[in-house]
Amino acid sequence: MWSQACDLIEQAERMHRQFFRAVATQPAEVVWEPPADVFEDEREVVVVLAMPGVRPERMEVRSEGGTLLVRGVRPLPLAGSGLRVRHLEIPYGRFERRIALPSRGLQLQEPEVADGCVILRLRKNDGGAR
């Protein structure tokens, strides 16, 4: 039974690291990396980032030589309310995610928010060539 409990804890920690990896962009700055899915058809590339609590105006989105860069800040909710933090699992603070784009010649559209996700649509300018 103890072995099973240890295995479950190890599995939970592995999943947590997989979805909320901390990455360093500068030596003293630690950020979290939101999980992302990427979809593509002949007209567009769609990137879906799981970021509940983050509005598009709180993030910077830009394309850098075949890479999509998304960064910003997810504020701690209820900050200043006088409540003490007892337990935190949701990552807060600075985040950054770099996603290799499968195509070049993409035009970023206005970000959308749906069901706790930020949806980034990149329209293909080249007729779908890869």
From TrEMBL:
Domain of life: Bacteria
Pfam families per UniProt: HSP20
Ranges where the SHSP domain occurs: 27-130
Classification via InterPro entries: A-crystallin/Hsp20_dom, HSP20-like_chaperone
Family note: Belongs to the small heat shock protein (HSP20) family.
Protein name: Hsp20/alpha crystallin family protein
Species lineage: Bacteria, Pseudomonadati, Pseudomonadota, Betaproteobacteria, Burkholderiales
